[in-house]
Specification:
oxidoreductase activity; NADP; flavoprotein; 10 helices; about 240 residues; globular; Oxygen-insensitive NADPH nitroreductase; 4 strands; 2 domains; FMN
């Protein structure tokens, strides 16, 4: 198997790390490699804040409600960033259009593509990672702690470190559930989701830790039917991302 594809299929979220540090040269190698990600019109509308300070990591763990943030070697905060583009505009007597749904989407997508490359590069080096959406739980506190300016907002974080152990890979949806040929076909979902529920129920009941009797559709019905982080709309507006 192609080693890149093999690495991609081995991805797991890691939440327990050793106390081994990541050399700065290795972290920079990972980030430089990740900059090869695609970017809409090459605007590169993202930044990343690297945090290794113990006290800051503990605060970030508290703000995101993710205790393992405090124990990772490096915590990365990925930001959608229009501030650097605005600096470029000011050099030519223009200003960035931050009141734009398109620019909100583009900067968020740019940050996400970059972050996924970071994850793959880090895992190829033998490190474990975990994306932390909880960074959006208390974004104003995150901004204050990390001195994040207007025209920038934290999209998510990522823990990186040497794993204490390797967990099992979670079975993904069958390809037929996400692949639609020629046109979108929602009629196939009932059968495919029933099949996937059986797969996930077996996984949850037999995995090495945190065994439970549950399936995917039940989990998702409980999760996605609840309104999450309604404060983000006002927070984005304060950061000059008004998405009109």
């Amino acid at each position: 198997m192609n080693h890149v594809i093999d690495q991609m299929q081995k991805h797991i979220s890691v939440r327990k790390y050793t106390d081994q540090a990541i050399p700065q040269s290795v972290l920079e190698e990972i980030l430089i490699a990740a900059q090869g990600a695609s970017s809409s019109n090459f605007i590169q509308a993202y930044s990343v804040i690297s945090v290794e300070d113990t006290e800051k990591k503990q605060l970030l763990a508290d703000y995101s409600n993710n205790p393992h943030v405090a124990t990772c070697a490096v915590f990365l905060v990925f930001c959608a960033d229009l501030a650097r583009l605005n600096a470029a505009c000011l050099q030519h007597n223009t200003v960035v259009q931050s009141d734009s749904m398109e620019n909100l989407l583009v900067s968020t997508i740019d940050a996400t593509l970059f972050a996924q490359n970071v994850a793959l590069a880090a895992e190829s080096k033998g490190y474990g990672i975990c994306f932390i959406g909880g960074i959006r739980n208390q974004p104003e506190k995150i901004n204050e702690l990390l001195n994040i300016p207007h025209l920038v907002f934290p999209v998510f974080g990522m823990t990186i470190g040497v794993p204490v152990k390797q967990n099992q890979v979670k079975p993904r949806l069958p390809l037929q559930a996400i692949l639609h040929k020629e046109c979108y076909d929602a009629n196939k979902y009932p059968a495919l989701l029933s099949q996937y529920d059986h797969t996930m129920q077996t996984y949850y009941q037999t995995r090495g830790t945190n065994q439970k009797n549950d399936d995917w559709t039940h989990n998702m019905s409980q999760f996605i039917s609840q309104l999450k982080r309604p404060h983000m709309k006002d927070f984005l507006a304060k950061q000059n991302f008004k998405a009109e």
